[in-house]
Specification:
This protein is an alpha/beta fold. The protein has 11 helices and 8 strands.
Length: 266
């Protein structure tokens, strides 16, 4: 575990585990690398796994900046430069997938293989309405209500039934997770502004796009659209698992990722 001091003076928390070809694991809107905890030891058997908490989240600086997906991608590039990585595989979940799209389009020489999980192309009516309501809950009812209602959207019903504690977050625990609600509001604004559909044809990295049919945050049509717009992309759609299918369908998710990463180069 270590910190990278960015040009702005903010600090980015990161961790490197394992040896082998570098693999960046980039989390979603919460910005917490802990999302990938169930998978790290498995991926680290064959890869040098690089994790980080997004700026504004977790152990990184709580900076009230103007967030954008391009800014988040810039932080990943800064981390790659810091670690001396000319190229790396990138696995991005949700907002991490938007970051992956941006890097593969704007810096194709830096991305080896690309895995986009539960992510989207551009905000549509459903996406905007969902996040507008989540935003209003956060502003009006606070982090506790936001965390509890979000758990119902992020997780598949069967997973909440098996793990009801994930939808019973206390106000105190939610305040620990969302230490500065204003930062989260700015990050929501950033993802609603994201749209690189017109550039997806420029992606040259071998790409795996994954989704789940019951994802209520980034519905499966986004996965299908990414698969159509990215040249040569492979599309895998799991029958269920919700937005957090890498957790609910851990074994299936990991099997597809490792198969793709370890496949011989064409």
């Amino acid at each position: 575990m270590a910190f990278l001091e960015l040009a702005s003076g903010d600090r980015l928390w990161y961790e490197v585990v394992g040896e082998g070809p570098p693999l960046l694991l980039v989390p979603g809107l919460t910005g917490l690398s802990d999302f990938f905890a169930p998978h790290v030891r498995h991926f680290a058997r064959t890869h040098r796994v690089i994790l980080h908490d997004h700026r504004g989240c977790g152990r990184s600086s709580l900076a009230r900046i103007d967030y954008s997906v391009e800014q988040m991608a810039g932080d990943v590039l800064a981390l790659m430069d810091h670690l001396g990585l000319e190229r790396a595989h990138l696995l991005g979940h949700s907002t991490g997938g938007a970051i992956g799209q941006t890097l593969a389009i704007d810096h194709p020489e830096r991305i080896d293989r690309l895995i986009l999980c539960a992510t989207w192309t551009a905000a549509d009516g459903w996406f905007r309405l969902l996040f507008q309501n989540r935003k209003e809950i956060l502003e009006g009812l606070g982090p506790g209500a936001y965390a509890r209602i979000s758990a119902l959207f992020l997780n598949a019903p069967f997973w909440v039934r098996l793990h009801p504690e994930i939808a019973a977050v206390s106000d105190e625990e939610a305040r620990r997770r969302i230490r500065d609600p204003e930062i989260l509001l700015r990050r929501i604004k950033a993802i609603l502004a994201f749209d690189r559909r017109a550039d997806l044809h420029r992606v040259r990295a071998p790409t795996l796009v994954m989704g789940a049919r019951d994802d209520m945050v980034t519905p499966v049509y986004f996965t299908e659209e990414l698969g159509r717009l990215i040249p040569g992309a492979e599309t895998v759609i799991l029958p269920d698992g919700g937005h957090f299918f890498p957790v609910a369908r851990e074994a299936a998710f990991r099997a597809h990722v490792l198969r793709f990463l370890n496949a011989p180069t064409a």
